[in-house]
Design brief:
- One of its GO terms (biological process) is proteolysis.
- This is Astacin like metallo-protease.
- By secondary structure, the protein is mainly alpha-helical.
- The protein has one domain.
- About 25% of the residues lie in helices and about 0% in strands.
- The chain is flat.
- The N and C termini lie far apart (about 20 Å).
Length: about 35
């Protein structure tokens, strides 16, 4: 389970995986480098 650092009420993901937008938000939140898939 992935839980956001700042707002735990934000829902992440879909039924089976994270969406592209979720991945971007997580990368931005944790200041990760962005890679093209």
């Amino acid at each position: 389970t992935i839980v956001p650092k700042t707002n735990r009420n934000i829902k992440l993901g879909q039924a089976s995986s994270l969406s592209h937008v979720d991945k971007l938000k997580i990368n931005r939140l944790y200041q990760c480098a962005v890679k093209d898939d």
